[in-house]
Amino acid sequence: MRNTNRANEPASFWTQANALLRKNLTFQKRNVKTNIRLILFPFVLCILLVLIQTILNNQFDKAKYKCGCVENECGVQYSDFDQVGTCPITNPMEWPPLLQTPDPRYRAVRTDFLPFSDFPNPLCRNNGSCPLTMLFTGTNQSFGEVLSRNMIPSTIDIDNSNVMDSFATNVLGSSTETEYTNFLEPAFFSELPIYYLQSQCGKNSTLSVPVQISTSSIQQELRCAQALRLWRNSSSEVNNAIYKGYRKGNTERQINEITAGYDFLNSNEDTFNVSIWYNSTYKNDTGFDKIALARIPRSVNLVSNSYLQFLLGSGTKMLFEFVKEMPKPETPLKFDVASLLGGLFFTWVILQLFPVVLTSLVYEKQQNLRIMMKMHGLGDGPYWIISYSYFLAISIIYMLCFVIFGTVIGLKFFTMNDYSIQFVFYFIYINLQISLAFLLASLFSNVKTATVIAYIGVFGTGLLAGFLFQFFIQDTSFPKGWIIVMELYPGFALYRGLYEFSQSSFTGDTMGTHGMRWGDLNDSTNGMKEVLIIMFVEWLLVLFFAYYIDQVLSTRSWKSPLLFLKGFQKKHSSSFRKPSLQRQGSKVFVMTEKADIHQEREKVEQLLLEPTTNHAIVCDKLSKVYPGRDGNPKKFAVRELSLALPEGECFGMLGPNGAGKTSFINMMIGLTKPTSGTAYVQGLDIRTDMNGIYTSMGVCPQHDLLWEILTGREHLLFYGRLKNLKGSALTQAVEESLKSVNLFHGGVADKKAGKYSGGMKRRLSVAISLIGDPTVVYMDEPSTGLDPASRKNLWSVVNRAKQDRAIILTTHSMEEAEVLCDRLGIFVDGSFQCIGNPKELKGRYGGTYVFSMATSIDHESNVEKLVQQLSPNAKKIYHISGTQKFELPKDEVKISNVFQAVETAKRNFPVSAWGLADTTLEDVFIKVAREAQPFHTLS
Ligand SMILES: *[C@@H]1O[C@H](CO)[C@@H](O)[C@H](O)[C@H]1NC(C)=O
Ligand SMILES: *[C@@H]1O[C@H](CO)[C@@H](O)[C@H](O)[C@H]1NC(C)=O
Ligand SMILES: *[C@@H]1O[C@H](CO)[C@@H](O)[C@H](O)[C@H]1NC(C)=O
Ligand SMILES: *[C@@H]1O[C@H](CO)[C@@H](O)[C@H](O)[C@H]1NC(C)=O
Ligand SMILES: *[C@@H]1O[C@H](CO)[C@@H](O)[C@H](O)[C@H]1NC(C)=O
Ligand SMILES: *[C@@H]1O[C@H](CO)[C@@H](O)[C@H](O)[C@H]1NC(C)=O
Fold first, then answer.
1. Is 266 in the pocket of ligand 4 (CB under 6 A)?
2. What is the rounded distance in angstroms from the CA atom of residue 262 to the CA atom of residue 139?
3. What is the model's pTM?
4. Which residue's alpha carbon is nearest to atom 12 within ligand 3?
5. Element holding 814 (H helix, E strand)
6. Least packed by Cβ within 10 Å: which of 102, 108, 544, 783?
7. Is residue 434 within a helix (H) or strand (E), and if so which, with residue range?
8. Residue 273 Cβ contacting ligand 4 at under 6 Å
9. Which CATH number fits domain 847-918: 3.40.190.10, 3.20.20.60, 3.30.70.100, 1.10.10.10?
10. Transmembrane region positions (predicted)?
């Protein structure tokens, strides 16, 4: 185990970083299956999208959804209503302008909520003959009456040879719904009649006229509808009537639609100033919103025409001949699923990375591996840089796979939007996500909890964003500020970004233009700019807080990281501090200290005053007090412990469970801070210089802290590198170390640590604690769970190792303590009861022999009598069904007397077994522990 080039130099930043990186890469190599599963997730989602897209495309490819064709000739004339939308229309039809009129069922009548005497009698609804009510108002009623009368003709005048033209000179209306475009006027393809408006309908109110549409001629039924012109005293009355008639979706009886309302305002001969009420929405029962704007110009034309006639006489006409849509190319039906579902699916795909990073971080925390690495010299800087870059690299590879795959299979979502925007967006987001994982990792201590919560978070966020947040984005009346507030939640910000991408690619695709470009970010409806800013700022903030909280948790103080940041952290002396007067004065009470403990304390005081370098560990009144909780008193785990350990000594701490040994070790290795007092390791104070101490320290914790999927050799390589071993020295050290703990042969070194037996793990832990020649080694029960052969082996390892380093070892095995330790301390209830080498202790506490004898139960009293005769001061220490043990003071008995007495006794009663033994360390231990803890029963 001794190594020629002792790694006194602490490992440099890059050496540490290199060690961690190599470990992570090995880890990643082992994790191939998980990685494949991870990468497959977006692939599966993309393929699913492609499948849905293919099915849809197949559907749209059917003749039903394509421009109708007959014998290779395609066009509007061969298409039915579903098909016509896709046809190229080079020369759109001209349609006569129509008014939007309410259906006869809904036309306004007199009701209890519109109780106007001039409204039509409700009976008209029975035969569909209700008039179309139009309301008028203005400042000059007589003027208004004239204008309104001019608007509605009293006769119909149709020229059968040119029906379309003569429609323009009459007032026609329809109650059909309009389309989004005006390529076809639905009024001419509907069952519903076209109405012609007249001031009064005659007897023969229906006529049929031939209409030429494209190449075919149809008979179109025209039905008379009476226009009822009603004057109102104010615009608010008009408004009120229209509002009350609004279709509220209850019974038909409650609906009273007004055809139109006109307010002539201050119009007169010189001024024409009108406002018009019209119904722009045409919402049918399935909730389709249609805009009837195409039918509004006619209502404007009516009143303009009427004003012209008022000024210039009835001969003058302002004709509104036709409406005509703009021509359009062929527009096959398209539906890009990825753009529509992309928001939700891709949010999941990207969020998916979060649990991966989080669990990996929590795993190291749960297994205390982070602290283990730290104890072996891994600084925070390398840890953060390497872990962060490592997760970043994984995320980038994942995202690259995702984007490349999506592009290859041709999802518009990826191909249409500018790749540089996509890159910036994804890059910022994954950085934010990793920082967030670092921050949240401090909240979890259990991998399972973290996994479950993270996945609930992932799916919940996706669903909430897709089914709630999206509505807020789409609702233009929703305050923008609130949306930005919601986007502070990174999941929503991600969704918003993806939503913008999908919107851009969707519109780009349907319009045949492009997706998002950098210039589009300037667009006020495009939320991408805000999202990028929010995510960038959050990334920096979250990263800062994650680092800060990590520092707080590792130093267990809220202040020190801030001090570090402010840059005025005190310089601590690296030499022993002189004991202050105040400290000496404060302890007034007299302790009934045993001589050996007192001597140790004096030695420590001496050392503090005159530092010498050969003492590796000096503990100065180290104490640990746990505050009392729930009314329990404070717990003194360690009380004013003083101890000085030179190099080359192995010190054994014996003590019953719960005596405070582990608390002591935890303070020494920096897991907890001492409540008072301190310890110096190689002259460095454990309260302030832990990072310096770590580089020369080795720890074998009570519970093995190992990575399940790394092999023994990889563990040693990693920790060896952390201890600044390089090249051949490293391989040699690792091999020697593996050999010394018997893990070298039979390929054991290259098996995963998770597959090791308990004993093998233990040996590996010991090897880890010794690699790189640390000057101070702590071993917390190193041999528990080892078989006798391995234990012997381990002892020889430790014995060889202790030559020029200080080892503190806790154990429950007296044999081990005797074999390994140069000095022992029995530690009970927070303080040492005695300190000394094993022989001294035995001599001091073991002034007795132990005599044991086994007989039948009937003869127990005989044995007692026998012992009484041998030594009047004998004490019975053990007694069970005929077997008894006694302590005989050494000065009272002679061994030869005992033999004689037993021989005599054997003749009187049967003795199945007997023995006489000198005190063992175990006896000493039990005795000391019992004295110190009168109220505790010891097992
Ligand atoms: C109202 O209009 C009529 C017809 O144009 C006009 O003769 C009359 O002077 C107007 N009345 C007022 C008060 O302007
Ligand atoms: C409108 O005003 C006229 C005259 O001032 C009045 O007779 C009539 O009742 C008013 N109509 C309504 C509906 O208020
Ligand atoms: C406008 O038309 C829609 C659709 O026919 C109808 O539901 C609504 O009640 C109408 N509004 C008014 C004020 O008549
Ligand atoms: C038109 O009427 C409105 C509302 O009464 C009024 O504010 C505006 O000044 C009028 N315009 C003219 C040119 O008279
Ligand atoms: C509502 O409009 C849609 C789309 O135009 C149509 O398919 C549906 O049949 C209409 N529903 C009713 C009840 O008119
Ligand atoms: C963005 O908009 C601002 C004002 O709205 C304008 O001044 C600027 O030139 C625009 N930038 C780009 C790149 O279009």
1. yes
2. 12
3. 0.63
4. 246
5. helix 814-820
6. 544
7. helix 419-441
8. yes
9. 3.30.70.100
10. 36-56, 340-363, 383-411, 423-445, 452-473, 531-549
